[in-house]
Design goal:
heterodimer; A: about 110 residues; mainly beta; seven-stranded mixed beta sheet; four-stranded antiparallel beta sheet; 11 strands; B: about 120 residues; six-stranded mixed beta sheet; about 0% helix
Chain lengths: ~110, ~120
């Protein structure tokens, strides 16, 4: 059974640009959530999607957005990148909340 | 509001020592889920265990064991006879089950960096 796949693994962008990250969940999982990990703030919840609907959103500015497609694949977009957006972005999929979340390997974004 | 505290930022032990990682949580929900994840240098969060709030039984899985005590809001993790391969950052996390928007997410502690020296 394939795990959660995130692409790309590494990304370098310039301040002011925008970026799109992709996440393919485990087959059959309909919930996809995104987290940002930085040395200073740790792991912070960005948003969660289920059947193409955003069910929960963390405390991030509107520059951070996401969407989910009918096949459960999800993308997150960050517009007008800032240096502080440099982080490891992790995606997690879940069949049901009761049984936890499986994480991908993450996308490491560096903003220069 | 939900909160997870891992007071130990870094722990260093010598191989074969036992080590306990502490986790204290705060929640107003009566139904919630607690998790432990391991993050090796590669970055991926590896699931270790899930426990729901109605199951206070301790669990042992090989060299790993978990002690869940609702009375003290703690969910501690012990590695027996540690090995170099156990070196990683370990995260404790909480997920509430109530409606209203606070669910469908994990709230993580800051993590504990465990270094096992040969």
């Amino acid at each position: 059974k394939a795990g959660v796949t995130q692409t790309p693994r590494y990304l370098i962008k310039t301040r002011g640009q925008q970026v799109t990250l992709s996440c393919s969940p485990i087959s059959g999982h309909r919930s996809v959530s995104w987290y940002q990990q930085t040395p200073g703030q740790g792991l912070q919840f960005l948003f969660e999607y289920f059947s193409e609907t955003q069910r929960n959103k963390g405390n991030f500015p509107g520059r951070f957005s996401g969407r989910q497609f009918s096949n459960s694949r999800s993308e997150m977009n960050v517009s007008t990148l800032e240096l502080g957006d440099s982080a490891l972005y992790l995606c997690a999929s879940s069949g049901t909340r009761n049984y936890g979340y499986t994480f991908g390997s993450g996308t490491r974004l560096t903003v220069v | 509001a939900q909160k997870v505290t891992q007071a130990q930022t870094e722990i260093s032990v010598v191989e074969k020592e036992d080590v306990t990682l502490d986790c204290v949580y705060e929640t107003r929900d009566t139904t919630y889920y607690l998790f432990w994840y391991k993050q090796p240098p590669s970055g991926e969060l590896v699931f270790l265990i899930r426990r729901n709030s109605f199951d206070e039984q301790n669990e042992i899985s090989g060299r790993y064991s978990w002690n869940f005590q609702k009375s003290t809001s703690s969910f501690n993790f012990t590695i027996t006879a540690s090995q170099v391969v156990d070196s990683a950052v370990y995260f404790c996390a909480l997920s509430e089950a109530s409606s209203g928007g606070s669910n469908y997410k994990l709230t993580f502690g800051k993590g504990t960096l465990l270094t096992v020296n040969p």
